[in-house]
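Quick one, probably user error.
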C-alpha cells in the first residue's frame, strides 16, 4: 500500500494536549498591540505630567517618562520599550520645553535634558529587557523539564502504541508549539499518522527517506527544500518503523532541538517495543 493512500486513510486526529504549559504572558500579544499600549502609556504619563506642571513647576519632570519605559520593557521587551523612550523624549520636548508645542529647543540645556532622558530610557529598557529575557528563558527551561518528567512517567505507564505516539506528539507540541506528525509503520506495512495531516507530496517523500535510511531528514534543504518538517526515525526492536516529524518555524527554530527529540524518539521506540512484546 502506498504512503499517500495510507496517509489519507489514517483516522488519528489532533486531540487534547495533556502537557499544557503554554506561555500566555503579555509578550505573546501582537506586536501592533504592544506598541499601541506603549503609546497609550506614554500619553497617560504626559497627561499626568501636564497636570502637575499646570499648578507647580517640578524639577526633573522628565524623569516621569522613565516609568512607562520600565513597564513596557518588563511587559513587552526591548523594542516597545525603546519606542516608549523615544515617545517620552519627543513628548517632553514638545509639551514642556520652550518654545512649547514645538520640537524646536530654545535653551541648549534642554537639549541635554532631552538627550539624557532618551539615554536613560534606552539604558533602563535594555537592562529590564535583558533581565526579563533571562527570566523567561529560565522559565521555559523549567517548564520544559517538567514536561519531560511528565512525559517519562506517562510513557512508563503506556500500554499501547497508539497511547505512546499520542503522548509523544502531545509532549513535542507542548515543548515547541509547532505542528507535529508521528508516522508508524505497522507489521503489515500499513501506516498510521498521529497529529498533523496536511503533509505535502515532498514531505511524504521525506518520510519515505527517513523510514528507509533510518537517518534524520531535514526540511528546508535540498532535496526537501519545500518540506516544513524535519523527520527523526525512532529505533524499534520489532518489525515496525516510526518517524517523528516536527515543523519548526525557520525564524524561531530552537538552537539545538536534536538532543531532546532524539531522546524522545528513543523512549518512543522502547515503549512501542515493550507494547509489541
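Nope, works fine. Designed sequence:
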Amino acid at each position: 500500500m502506498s504512503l499517500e493512500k495510507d496517509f489519507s486513510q489514517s483516522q488519528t486526529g489532533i486531540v487534547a494536549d495533556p502537557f499544557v504549559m503554554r506561555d500566555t504572558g503579555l509578550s505573546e500579544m501582537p506586536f501592533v498591540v504592544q506598541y499601541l499600549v506603549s503609546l497609550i502609556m506614554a500619553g497617560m504619563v504626559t497627561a499626568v505630567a501636564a497636570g502637575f506642571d499646570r499648578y507647580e513647576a517640578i524639577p526633573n519632570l522628565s524623569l516621569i517618562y522613565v516609568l512607562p519605559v520600565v513597564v513596557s520593557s518588563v511587559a513587552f521587551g526591548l523594542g516597545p520599550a525603546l519606542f516608549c523612550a523615544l515617545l517620552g523624549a519627543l513628548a517632553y520636548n514638545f509639551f514642556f520645553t520652550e518654545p512649547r508645542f514645538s520640537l524646536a529647543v530654545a535653551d541648549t540645556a534642554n537639549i541635554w535634558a532631552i538627550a539624557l532622558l532618551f539615554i536613560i530610557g534606552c539604558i533602563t529598557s535594555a537592562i529590564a529587557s535583558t533581565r526579563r529575557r533571562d527570566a523567561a528563558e529560565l522559565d521555559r527551561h523549567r517548564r520544559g523539564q517538567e514536561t519531560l518528567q511528565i512525559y517519562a512517567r506517562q510513557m512508563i505507564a503506556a500500554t499501547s502504541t497508539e497511547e505512546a505516539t499520542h503522548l509523544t506528539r502531545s509532549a513535542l507540541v507542548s515543548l515547541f508549539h509547532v505542528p507535529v506528525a508521528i508516522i508508524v509503520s505497522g507489521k503489515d506495512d500499513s501506516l498510521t499518522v498521529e497529529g498533523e495531516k496536511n503533509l505535502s507530496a515532498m514531505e511524504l517523500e521525506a518520510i519515505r527517506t527517513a523510514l528507509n535510511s533510518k537517518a534524520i531528514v531535514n526540511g528546508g534543504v535540498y532535496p526537501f527544500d519545500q518540506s516544513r518538517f524535519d523527520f527523526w526515525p525512532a529505533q524499534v526492536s520489532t518489525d515496525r518503523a516510526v518517524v517523528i516529524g516536527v515543523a519548526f518555524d525557520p525564524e524561531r527554530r530552537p538552537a539545538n532541538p536534536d538532543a531532546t527529540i532524539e531522546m524522545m524518539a528513543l523512549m518512543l521506540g522502547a515503549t512501542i517495543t515493550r507494547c509489541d512484546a
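The mean pLDDT is 81.
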